[in-house]
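Workshop exercise sheet. Pairs work together: one partner reads the sequence aloud, the other fills in the structure field after running the prediction. Swap roles for the next sheet.
Pair: D.N. / O.F.
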Amino acid sequence: MKKIGFLSFGHWADHPAYQTRTASDTLLQSIDLAVAAEEIGLDGAYFRVHHFAAQLGSPFPLLAAIGAKTKKIEIGTGVIDMRYENPLYMVEDAGAADLISGGRLQLGISRGSPEQVIDGWRYFGYEPEEGDTDADMGRKKGLAFLEKLDGVGFAEPNPYPMFPNPPGLLRLEPYSKGLRDRIWWGAASNATAVWAAENGMHLQSSTLKFDESGKPFHIQQAEQIRLYKEAWKKAGHQREPRVSVSRSIFALVNEKDRLYFGRDANSTDKLGYIESDKRAIFGKSYAGEPDKLIKELEADEAIKEADTLLLTIPNTLGVEYNVHVLSSILKYVAPGLGWR
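Structure field:
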C-alpha cells in the first residue's frame, strides 16, 4: 500500500490551449481538483510555491479553502521556500489552516530553489546574517518555524494587556497540536536529507536531485532515502518517518492521452544545472499503456523506498482531464503494483 497524491505547479497564462487563463482560474480549479481527488480516493493534494511567477505563491489561503471543502485528503506543499518567509507569521497561518482542515496539513518546506528574479527574498525584506548564504538563512528559518510550532511560550506578556493573559510566557496562536510532526523538508542532496532526519522532519524528494554519483536518477534517490532513514533511526525519534517522491506518470488509455503524452514514452534521465556550480540529475517521465507502466515502475527503486507518491499533473489542462489522469493511475496502474 502506498499513499498517492497529486502535485500541482499551479501555472496560468492567457494561452488558447490553457484552461487556466488567470490566477483566479488556477486557484478555484485547485480547490475543485482537490475535492474531486478526494472523491476518487486519492490521498493527497499538494501544491508548489513560487514567487514572482504566474504560479501559486502564498499557499495558506488555498490550503485553508481546500481544508474547508474536504474531509479526509491530506493537504500539503512541495515546497515553501523559507528564504521568503517570516517563520512566526507562518506559524500563525499554518496553525489556522491546519485547524480549519481538522489536522490534515502536510507542509513541505525547504531552503529554496532558483527563482524568477535575482535574490527575490531581498524584496521581501530579508538578508542572510553576516557570513551566511541564502541557503543558510532558509535552513535557519526552517528551524525557527519548527521550534515555534511546538507551542511553548516564549514572549514576555504585557503587564497591562488589552485582554487577560494566561500565566507565563505567551506562545503564538492559534496553536494546532500535532502540526510540528507533519513538516517535511525538500532535499536535493544526501547531506540535506540526513539533516532533515536529524531535525525530525519527513523527507520530500522531487524529480531532481544533485548528481552525486553518476548513477541513474532513481538509484541515487533510493540511496538518499536510505541514508535519511538511517539518520532518522540514529537520531532516536519515537515516531515513524515518512518519505515522498514525485513522478510524472501518465497512463495512455485514450487518444487524448496519446496526443498529450505519447512523446514521453521514451523519456530518459537528463543532466543539467539548476545552480551554476552544481550539476543536477532530472528523473524521466513515465508514459505508456498500463501494462508497460507497471513493468517500468516496478523497477523504480526510489518509489519502492517511499511511502508516498506525488503525481505531477498538467494543471493547465483543467479539472476534468486531470481527474481522468489521476483516475487512470488509480484504476489501471496502482493495483498491479500493490499500491491499492
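Discussion prompt: The chain has a mean pLDDT of 96. What would you look at next?
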